Protein backbone atom coordinates (compact mmCIF):
# COMPACT_ATOMS: atom_id res chain seq x y z
CA UNK A 1 0.00 0.00 0.00
CA UNK A 2 1.47 3.43 -0.93
CA UNK A 3 2.01 6.24 1.55
CA UNK A 4 -0.98 8.26 0.31
CA UNK A 5 -3.34 5.33 0.84
CA UNK A 6 -1.96 4.87 4.35
CA UNK A 7 -2.54 8.55 5.08
CA UNK A 8 -6.13 8.33 3.86
CA UNK A 9 -6.78 5.24 5.99
CA UNK A 10 -5.25 6.93 9.05
CA UNK A 11 -7.32 10.08 8.51
CA UNK A 12 -10.51 8.09 8.18
CA UNK A 13 -9.75 6.03 11.30
CA UNK A 14 -9.10 9.23 13.23
CA UNK A 15 -12.41 10.75 12.05
CA UNK A 16 -14.33 7.61 13.06
CA UNK A 17 -12.71 7.64 16.52
CA UNK A 18 -13.37 11.36 16.86
CA UNK A 19 -17.09 11.11 16.08
CA UNK A 20 -17.60 7.96 18.15
CA UNK A 21 -16.03 9.75 21.11
CA UNK A 22 -18.38 12.71 20.62
CA UNK A 23 -21.43 10.42 20.57
CA UNK A 24 -20.24 8.78 23.80
CA UNK A 25 -19.85 12.20 25.42
CA UNK A 26 -23.18 13.41 23.96
CA UNK A 27 -21.42 16.33 22.21
CA UNK A 28 -23.21 17.22 18.95
CA UNK A 29 -24.34 13.61 18.98
CA UNK A 30 -26.76 13.96 16.05
CA UNK A 31 -24.04 15.46 13.82
CA UNK A 32 -21.51 12.82 14.81
CA UNK A 33 -24.02 10.06 14.02
CA UNK A 34 -24.56 11.72 10.65
CA UNK A 35 -20.82 11.85 9.91
CA UNK A 36 -20.39 8.22 10.97
CA UNK A 37 -23.20 7.40 8.54
CA UNK A 38 -21.49 9.20 5.66
CA UNK A 39 -18.24 7.36 6.37
CA UNK A 40 -20.08 4.02 6.42
CA UNK A 41 -21.71 5.07 3.15
CA UNK A 42 -18.31 5.81 1.59
CA UNK A 43 -17.13 2.35 2.67
CA UNK A 44 -20.18 0.63 1.19
CA UNK A 45 -21.47 -0.57 4.58
CA UNK A 46 -25.15 0.15 3.91
CA UNK A 47 -26.60 -1.44 7.09
CA UNK A 48 -24.22 0.54 9.33
CA UNK A 49 -24.99 3.73 7.39
CA UNK A 50 -28.72 3.13 7.90
CA UNK A 51 -28.25 2.71 11.65
CA UNK A 52 -26.24 5.92 12.00
CA UNK A 53 -28.58 8.02 9.86
CA UNK A 54 -31.55 6.60 11.77
CA UNK A 55 -29.94 7.70 15.04
CA UNK A 56 -29.15 11.17 13.65
CA UNK A 57 -32.72 11.62 12.38
CA UNK A 58 -34.18 10.45 15.70
CA UNK A 59 -31.95 12.81 17.70
CA UNK A 60 -32.84 15.78 15.49
CA UNK A 61 -36.18 15.34 13.65
CA UNK A 62 -35.46 18.53 11.67
CA UNK A 63 -32.17 17.21 10.29
CA UNK A 64 -33.06 17.07 6.59
CA UNK A 65 -29.83 15.49 5.31
CA UNK A 66 -30.08 12.66 7.83
CA UNK A 67 -33.68 11.88 6.81
CA UNK A 68 -32.83 12.08 3.10
CA UNK A 69 -29.74 9.87 3.30
CA UNK A 70 -31.60 7.42 5.52
CA UNK A 71 -34.22 7.12 2.79
CA UNK A 72 -31.50 6.72 0.16
CA UNK A 73 -29.73 3.94 2.07
CA UNK A 74 -32.96 2.13 2.91
CA UNK A 75 -33.83 2.23 -0.80
CA UNK A 76 -30.46 0.67 -1.60
CA UNK A 77 -31.24 -2.03 0.97
CA UNK A 78 -34.70 -2.47 -0.63
CA UNK A 79 -36.42 -1.79 2.69
CA UNK A 80 -39.10 0.10 0.82
CA UNK A 81 -41.70 0.79 3.50
CA UNK A 82 -39.03 2.19 5.82
CA UNK A 83 -37.59 4.20 2.93
CA UNK A 84 -41.00 5.73 2.24
CA UNK A 85 -41.34 6.74 5.90
CA UNK A 86 -37.89 8.36 6.00
CA UNK A 87 -38.34 10.16 2.69
CA UNK A 88 -41.77 11.47 3.64
CA UNK A 89 -40.10 13.09 6.66
CA UNK A 90 -37.42 14.58 4.39
CA UNK A 91 -40.04 15.96 2.00
CA UNK A 92 -42.02 17.39 4.91
CA UNK A 93 -38.89 19.37 5.83
CA UNK A 94 -38.18 20.45 2.24
CA UNK A 95 -41.27 20.03 0.02
CA UNK A 96 -39.49 21.33 -3.07
CA UNK A 97 -36.37 19.14 -2.83
CA UNK A 98 -36.46 17.25 -6.12
CA UNK A 99 -33.97 14.56 -5.10
CA UNK A 100 -36.16 13.55 -2.14
CA UNK A 101 -39.32 13.62 -4.24
CA UNK A 102 -37.72 11.47 -6.95
CA UNK A 103 -36.58 8.89 -4.41
CA UNK A 104 -39.94 8.88 -2.63
CA UNK A 105 -41.89 8.39 -5.85
CA UNK A 106 -39.60 5.47 -6.77
CA UNK A 107 -39.92 3.92 -3.32
CA UNK A 108 -43.72 4.16 -3.52
CA UNK A 109 -43.65 2.22 -6.80
CA UNK A 110 -41.44 -0.45 -5.24
CA UNK A 111 -43.82 -0.91 -2.31
CA UNK A 112 -46.45 -1.92 -4.86
CA UNK A 113 -44.19 -4.44 -6.62
CA UNK A 114 -43.18 -6.25 -3.42
CA UNK A 115 -46.74 -6.64 -2.20
CA UNK A 116 -46.59 -4.49 0.89
CA UNK A 117 -49.62 -2.99 2.60
CA UNK A 118 -49.54 0.13 0.40
CA UNK A 119 -52.03 -0.10 -2.48
CA UNK A 120 -52.24 1.86 -5.73
CA UNK A 121 -55.04 4.12 -4.45
CA UNK A 122 -52.92 4.97 -1.42
CA UNK A 123 -49.93 5.76 -3.64
CA UNK A 124 -52.09 8.03 -5.82
CA UNK A 125 -53.41 9.87 -2.77
CA UNK A 126 -49.93 10.31 -1.34
CA UNK A 127 -48.51 11.57 -4.63
CA UNK A 128 -51.37 14.04 -5.07
CA UNK A 129 -50.68 15.42 -1.59
CA UNK A 130 -46.94 15.63 -2.31
CA UNK A 131 -47.56 17.54 -5.55
CA UNK A 132 -49.73 20.09 -3.75
CA UNK A 133 -47.08 20.63 -1.07
CA UNK A 134 -44.32 20.92 -3.68
CA UNK A 135 -46.21 23.48 -5.75
CA UNK A 136 -46.94 25.46 -2.61
CA UNK A 137 -43.17 25.75 -2.10
CA UNK A 138 -42.02 26.27 -5.71
CA UNK A 139 -44.90 28.44 -6.95
CA UNK A 140 -46.56 29.97 -3.87
CA UNK A 141 -48.51 32.45 -6.02
CA UNK A 142 -50.38 29.52 -7.63
CA UNK A 143 -52.64 29.05 -4.59
CA UNK A 144 -55.11 26.24 -4.02
CA UNK A 145 -56.54 24.79 -7.21
CA UNK A 146 -60.29 24.26 -7.56
CA UNK A 147 -59.84 21.83 -10.45
CA UNK A 148 -61.63 18.52 -10.01
CA UNK A 149 -60.35 16.81 -13.14
CA UNK A 150 -57.02 14.92 -12.95
CA UNK A 151 -53.99 16.83 -14.09
CA UNK A 152 -52.25 15.81 -17.30
CA UNK A 153 -49.16 17.31 -18.93
CA UNK A 154 -49.37 20.12 -21.46
CA UNK A 155 -45.91 19.29 -22.77
CA UNK A 156 -43.39 16.44 -22.86
CA UNK A 157 -39.65 16.68 -23.32
CA UNK A 158 -39.17 13.28 -24.91
CA UNK A 159 -35.40 13.28 -25.38
CA UNK A 160 -32.85 12.58 -26.55
CA UNK A 161 -30.76 11.18 -23.72
CA UNK A 162 -27.50 13.06 -22.98
CA UNK A 163 -28.73 16.08 -24.94
CA UNK A 164 -29.51 18.50 -22.11
CA UNK A 165 -33.08 17.49 -21.19
CA UNK A 166 -32.43 17.77 -17.44
CA UNK A 167 -31.04 21.28 -17.84
CA UNK A 168 -33.89 22.42 -20.08
CA UNK A 169 -36.58 21.04 -17.76
CA UNK A 170 -34.96 22.70 -14.73
CA UNK A 171 -35.05 26.02 -16.60
CA UNK A 172 -38.66 25.67 -17.70
CA UNK A 173 -40.12 24.90 -14.27
CA UNK A 174 -38.60 28.09 -12.88
CA UNK A 175 -41.07 30.06 -15.00
CA UNK A 176 -43.85 31.49 -12.78
CA UNK A 177 -46.53 29.83 -14.93
CA UNK A 178 -44.91 26.42 -15.54
CA UNK A 179 -45.60 24.03 -12.67
CA UNK A 180 -43.27 21.04 -12.10
CA UNK A 181 -44.36 17.43 -12.03
CA UNK A 182 -43.65 15.37 -8.92
CA UNK A 183 -40.56 14.07 -10.70
CA UNK A 184 -38.87 15.04 -13.92
CA UNK A 185 -38.86 11.54 -15.46
CA UNK A 186 -42.03 9.53 -14.89
CA UNK A 187 -41.41 6.93 -17.62
CA UNK A 188 -45.12 6.21 -17.74
CA UNK A 189 -45.59 5.48 -21.43
CA UNK A 190 -42.68 3.08 -21.84
CA UNK A 191 -42.26 1.52 -18.35
CA UNK A 192 -45.16 2.19 -15.97
CA UNK A 193 -48.31 2.17 -18.12
CA UNK A 194 -49.68 -0.81 -16.17
CA UNK A 195 -50.05 1.45 -13.11
CA UNK A 196 -52.85 3.31 -14.89
CA UNK A 197 -53.62 6.85 -16.00
CA UNK A 198 -54.82 7.92 -12.54
CA UNK A 199 -51.35 7.09 -11.21
CA UNK A 200 -49.81 9.11 -14.05
CA UNK A 201 -52.11 12.07 -13.41
CA UNK A 202 -51.22 12.09 -9.71
CA UNK A 203 -47.73 13.32 -10.65
CA UNK A 204 -49.10 16.63 -11.95
CA UNK A 205 -50.82 19.58 -10.26
CA UNK A 206 -54.50 19.95 -11.09
CA UNK A 207 -54.91 22.94 -13.40
CA UNK A 208 -58.41 24.37 -14.02
CA UNK A 209 -59.48 24.74 -17.67
CA UNK A 210 -58.55 28.14 -19.07
CA UNK A 211 -55.82 28.67 -16.49
CA UNK A 212 -52.62 30.46 -17.45
CA UNK A 213 -50.60 27.67 -15.83
CA UNK A 214 -49.18 24.64 -17.61
CA UNK A 215 -47.23 21.57 -16.52
CA UNK A 216 -45.17 18.81 -18.09
CA UNK A 217 -42.51 16.15 -17.63
CA UNK A 218 -39.24 15.13 -19.26
CA UNK A 219 -38.65 11.41 -19.76
CA UNK A 220 -35.72 11.26 -22.16
CA UNK A 221 -36.27 7.57 -22.92
CA UNK A 222 -39.59 8.24 -24.67
CA UNK A 223 -37.82 9.31 -27.87
CA UNK A 224 -36.34 5.86 -28.48
CA UNK A 225 -39.78 4.28 -28.08
CA UNK A 226 -41.67 5.55 -31.10
CA UNK A 227 -44.38 2.92 -30.55
CA UNK A 228 -45.71 4.97 -27.62
CA UNK A 229 -46.19 8.07 -29.79
CA UNK A 230 -49.56 6.86 -31.05
CA UNK A 231 -50.80 6.19 -27.50
CA UNK A 232 -49.72 9.67 -26.40
CA UNK A 233 -51.35 11.30 -29.42
CA UNK A 234 -54.63 9.47 -28.77
CA UNK A 235 -54.79 10.32 -25.06
CA UNK A 236 -53.28 13.83 -25.27
CA UNK A 237 -54.15 15.12 -28.76
CA UNK A 238 -53.01 18.69 -28.00
CA UNK A 239 -49.76 17.74 -26.31
CA UNK A 240 -46.66 19.75 -27.22
CA UNK A 241 -43.49 17.76 -27.80
CA UNK A 242 -39.96 19.07 -27.26
CA UNK A 243 -36.91 17.25 -28.63
CA UNK A 244 -33.27 18.13 -28.02
CA UNK A 245 -30.69 16.88 -30.53
CA UNK A 246 -26.94 16.93 -29.97
CA UNK A 247 -24.10 16.13 -32.33
CA UNK A 248 -24.71 12.37 -32.68
CA UNK A 249 -21.01 11.56 -32.23
CA UNK A 250 -20.86 13.39 -28.90
CA UNK A 251 -24.21 12.00 -27.78
CA UNK A 252 -23.22 8.43 -28.59
CA UNK A 253 -19.95 8.67 -26.67
CA UNK A 254 -21.61 10.40 -23.71
CA UNK A 255 -24.41 7.81 -23.62
CA UNK A 256 -21.91 4.97 -23.46
CA UNK A 257 -19.89 6.60 -20.68
CA UNK A 258 -23.04 7.31 -18.65
CA UNK A 259 -24.16 3.69 -18.79
CA UNK A 260 -20.65 2.41 -18.09
CA UNK A 261 -20.28 4.76 -15.12
CA UNK A 262 -23.67 3.63 -13.74
CA UNK A 263 -22.62 -0.03 -14.20
CA UNK A 264 -25.40 -0.62 -16.75
CA UNK A 265 -22.79 -1.39 -19.40
CA UNK A 266 -19.90 -3.84 -18.99
CA UNK A 267 -18.65 -4.06 -22.58
CA UNK A 268 -15.82 -1.91 -23.90
CA UNK A 269 -16.64 0.97 -26.23
CA UNK A 270 -15.26 -1.06 -29.11
CA UNK A 271 -17.71 -3.87 -28.37
CA UNK A 272 -20.69 -1.73 -27.36
CA UNK A 273 -20.47 1.05 -29.95
CA UNK A 274 -18.09 0.35 -32.81
CA UNK A 275 -19.10 -3.27 -33.32
CA UNK A 276 -22.30 -2.03 -34.96
CA UNK A 277 -20.26 -0.23 -37.61
CA UNK A 278 -17.55 -2.86 -38.00
CA UNK A 279 -20.11 -5.68 -38.28
CA UNK A 280 -21.90 -3.90 -41.08
CA UNK A 281 -24.63 -2.45 -38.85
CA UNK A 282 -26.68 -5.64 -38.96
CA UNK A 283 -30.19 -5.07 -37.58
CA UNK A 284 -29.20 -2.61 -34.87
CA UNK A 285 -32.67 -2.74 -33.36
CA UNK A 286 -32.46 -6.44 -32.51
CA UNK A 287 -32.20 -6.23 -28.72
CA UNK A 288 -32.42 -9.99 -28.17
CA UNK A 289 -28.83 -10.72 -29.11
CA UNK A 290 -25.31 -9.64 -28.11
CA UNK A 291 -24.02 -6.11 -27.70
CA UNK A 292 -22.81 -5.92 -31.30
CA UNK A 293 -26.44 -6.09 -32.44
CA UNK A 294 -28.05 -4.46 -29.40
CA UNK A 295 -26.43 -1.16 -30.34
CA UNK A 296 -28.67 1.36 -28.62
CA UNK A 297 -25.92 3.95 -28.85
CA UNK A 298 -25.87 4.22 -32.63
CA UNK A 299 -29.60 3.68 -33.06
CA UNK A 300 -30.40 6.39 -30.51
CA UNK A 301 -28.36 8.90 -32.52
CA UNK A 302 -30.00 8.21 -35.87
CA UNK A 303 -32.46 10.96 -35.12
CA UNK A 304 -34.28 11.12 -38.42
CA UNK A 305 -35.62 7.57 -38.06
CA UNK A 306 -37.00 8.31 -34.60
CA UNK A 307 -38.46 11.70 -35.48
CA UNK A 308 -40.37 10.24 -38.41
CA UNK A 309 -42.18 7.88 -36.05
CA UNK A 310 -43.24 10.72 -33.74
CA UNK A 311 -44.20 13.21 -36.45
CA UNK A 312 -46.26 10.57 -38.22
CA UNK A 313 -48.84 10.84 -35.41
CA UNK A 314 -48.17 14.22 -33.77
CA UNK A 315 -48.54 17.33 -36.01
CA UNK A 316 -45.31 19.13 -36.85
CA UNK A 317 -46.62 22.39 -35.37
CA UNK A 318 -46.92 20.67 -31.98
CA UNK A 319 -43.25 19.66 -32.05
CA UNK A 320 -40.25 21.82 -31.20
CA UNK A 321 -36.82 20.53 -32.21
CA UNK A 322 -33.89 22.23 -30.49
CA UNK A 323 -30.15 21.87 -30.98
CA UNK A 324 -28.31 21.00 -27.78
CA UNK A 325 -25.19 22.94 -28.67
CA UNK A 326 -27.27 26.12 -28.97
CA UNK A 327 -28.82 25.46 -25.55
CA UNK A 328 -25.36 25.08 -24.03
CA UNK A 329 -24.05 28.30 -25.66
CA UNK A 330 -27.17 30.50 -25.49
CA UNK A 331 -29.49 29.05 -22.82
CA UNK A 332 -31.53 32.23 -22.35
CA UNK A 333 -32.35 32.51 -26.04
CA UNK A 334 -33.30 28.84 -26.42
CA UNK A 335 -35.35 28.83 -23.21
CA UNK A 336 -37.32 31.90 -24.27
CA UNK A 337 -37.95 30.30 -27.66
CA UNK A 338 -39.32 27.31 -25.75
CA UNK A 339 -41.48 29.57 -23.56
CA UNK A 340 -42.93 31.08 -26.74
CA UNK A 341 -43.64 27.61 -28.14
CA UNK A 342 -45.42 26.67 -24.91
CA UNK A 343 -47.50 29.85 -24.95
CA UNK A 344 -46.10 31.56 -21.85
CA UNK A 345 -44.47 34.97 -21.57
CA UNK A 346 -40.68 35.43 -21.86
CA UNK A 347 -38.90 35.13 -18.53
CA UNK A 348 -35.25 35.69 -17.66
CA UNK A 349 -33.81 33.34 -15.04
CA UNK A 350 -31.24 34.41 -12.49
CA UNK A 351 -28.86 31.66 -13.66
CA UNK A 352 -28.61 28.87 -16.23
CA UNK A 353 -26.59 26.16 -14.52
CA UNK A 354 -25.94 23.07 -16.64
CA UNK A 355 -27.09 19.77 -15.12
CA UNK A 356 -25.66 16.24 -15.33
CA UNK A 357 -22.53 17.18 -17.25
CA UNK A 358 -19.93 14.41 -17.32
CA UNK A 359 -16.25 14.23 -18.20
CA UNK A 360 -14.25 11.51 -19.91
CA UNK A 361 -11.15 11.02 -22.02
CA UNK A 362 -11.75 11.92 -25.71
CA UNK A 363 -11.68 9.04 -28.16
CA UNK A 364 -8.89 8.86 -30.77
CA UNK A 365 -9.34 11.03 -33.88
CA UNK A 366 -9.57 7.96 -36.11
CA UNK A 367 -12.48 6.54 -34.13
CA UNK A 368 -14.23 9.89 -34.00
CA UNK A 369 -13.93 10.20 -37.77
CA UNK A 370 -15.41 6.73 -38.12
CA UNK A 371 -18.48 7.87 -36.20
CA UNK A 372 -18.66 11.11 -38.20
CA UNK A 373 -18.66 9.14 -41.45
CA UNK A 374 -21.28 6.74 -40.10
CA UNK A 375 -23.71 9.47 -39.05
CA UNK A 376 -23.17 11.79 -42.04
CA UNK A 377 -25.95 10.38 -44.28
CA UNK A 378 -28.42 10.30 -41.37
CA UNK A 379 -27.58 13.91 -40.49
CA UNK A 380 -28.20 14.93 -44.09
CA UNK A 381 -31.56 13.17 -44.10
CA UNK A 382 -32.43 14.91 -40.82
CA UNK A 383 -31.63 18.36 -42.23
CA UNK A 384 -33.73 17.65 -45.32
CA UNK A 385 -36.62 16.27 -43.26
CA UNK A 386 -36.78 19.18 -40.80
CA UNK A 387 -35.48 21.85 -43.19
CA UNK A 388 -32.99 22.82 -40.48
CA UNK A 389 -29.20 23.14 -40.51
CA UNK A 390 -27.18 21.48 -37.76
CA UNK A 391 -23.54 21.75 -38.94
CA UNK A 392 -22.37 18.69 -37.06
CA UNK A 393 -19.80 17.46 -39.60
Q: Judging by the overall fold, what is the CATH architecture of the largest domain? A: 3-Layer(aba) Sandwich
Largest sheet: 5 strands, parallel
Strand content: 5-15%
How many domain modules?
A: 2
Please provide the ordered H/E string of secondary-structure elements.
HHHHHHHEHEHHEHEHHHHEHHH
**What's the helical proportion of residues?**
40-55%
**How does the overall form come out from the CA principal axes?**
globular
Residue-averaged pLDDT? 86
Radius of gyration: 23 Å
Task: List low-confidence stretches.
Answer: 281-294
**How many DSSP-defined strands?**
5
Oligomer: single chain
CATH top level class name of the largest domain: Alpha Beta
**Superfamily (CATH H level) name of the largest domain:** P-loop containing nucleotide triphosphate hydrolases
Number of helices: 18
* Major β-sheet strand ordering: 2-3-1-4-5
Give the N-to-C terminal Cα separation: 48 Å
What structural class results from the helix and strand content? alpha/beta
Give a verbal description of the structure:
With 393 residues, the chain is α/β, with parallel strands linked by helices. The protein folds into two domains: 11-140, Serine Threonine Protein Phosphatase 5, Tetratricopeptide repeat (Alpha Horseshoe); 151-386, P-loop containing nucleotide triphosphate hydrolases (Rossmann fold), CATH 3.40.50.300. It has helices at residues 3-24, 29-42, 46-59, 64-76, 80-93, 98-113, 120-138, 165-172, 188-192, 197-201, 229-235, 248-261, 269-278, 296-299, 303-311, 324-329, 331-342, 365-386; strands at 155-159, 178-180, 214-218, 240-245, 319-323. Strands 2-3-1-4-5 form a five-stranded parallel beta sheet. Helix 6 (98-113) runs antiparallel to helix 7 (120-138). The longest helix has 22 residues, at 3-24.
Amino acid sequence: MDIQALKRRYAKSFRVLYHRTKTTLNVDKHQSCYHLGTMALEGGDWPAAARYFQQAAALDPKYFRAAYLLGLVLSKLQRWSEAVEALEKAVALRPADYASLELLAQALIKTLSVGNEIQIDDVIARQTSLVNKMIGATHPHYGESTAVLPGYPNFLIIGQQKCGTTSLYSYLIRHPHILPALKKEIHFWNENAELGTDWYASHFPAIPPGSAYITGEASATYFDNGHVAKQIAEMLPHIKIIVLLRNPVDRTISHYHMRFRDKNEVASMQEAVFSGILDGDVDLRDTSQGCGLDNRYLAGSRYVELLRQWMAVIPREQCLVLQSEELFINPMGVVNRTFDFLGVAPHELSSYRKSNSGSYVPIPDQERQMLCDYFHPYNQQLEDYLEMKFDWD
